[in-house]
Amino acid sequence: MSLTLSYRNWSFDADLQIVHADVLLEIGGEAVVDEPLCVDVGLPALLLSAAEDVRPDRWAGVDAWEKVPFFICGCGDPECRGFSFIATHRKDMSLIELQEVEERQDAPPRPLAEYEVDREEYARQVKEIGETFLSFVEPLDYRPLYGDTVATVRRLLAKLADMYPGLGEAAERSRRV
């Protein structure tokens, strides 16, 4: 299925120390997510999902960054929106299954929808978002709740560069087109 994952109109809430963006996740022509959301809290888990299977746990502690849903607010307001996805790498490693789920405390997640996307295309788009995030927060006095957010993002970007050596070149080509 075709995939578009983009973050636009980045902004920083200095009081809450969270980064927002207009998130668009479109798979096979369907807008799965299309709204402004906090993006820094779930970014490490999103990057990890391009490398290995991930399962969200909306109620995990702050240091369990690998379990944070990709798109969830970090301000602590339980009314804020969140979108949870289980990412599973197919055995042949060419596809990633993204299963949107409704998380329920003390109960298994309820499946909402399933999508299969090209693994390399997914990794390319996720990597570009991680790189843009680092450029965005670099000049800021950014002190997130998970204090190792920036270091974790850098480490995961390095892991993706090792796993997908052609991604940097592909991203550069796509920018020139």
List keywords for this structure.
177 residues, alpha+beta, 4-stranded antiparallel β-sheet, 35% strand, disordered C terminus
Describe the structure.
There is one protein chain. The chain is of the alpha+beta class. It is 29% helix and 35% strand. It has four helices and seven strands. It has helices at residues 43-49, 119-137, 149-163, 167-176, and strands spanning 3-13, 18-27, 30-38, 71-72, 82-89, 95-104, 107-118. Strands 4-5-6-7 form a four-stranded antiparallel beta sheet. The chain is globular. Mean pLDDT is 90; it is low at 173-177.
Q: SSE layout and pairings?
A:
Elements (H helix, E strand, L loop, with lengths): L2 E11 L4 E10 L2 E9 L4 H7 L21 E2 L9 E8 L5 E10 L2 E12 H19 L11 H15 L3 H10 L1
Antiparallel strand pairs: 1-2, 2-3, 4-5, 5-6, 6-7
Structure summary:
The chain is an alpha+beta fold and 177 residues long.
Nearest-angstrom radius of gyration?
A: 15 Å
Structural class: alpha+beta
Shape: globular
The strands making up the biggest β-sheet line up spatially as 4-5-6-7
Uncertain segments are 173-177
Estimated helix fraction: 25-40%
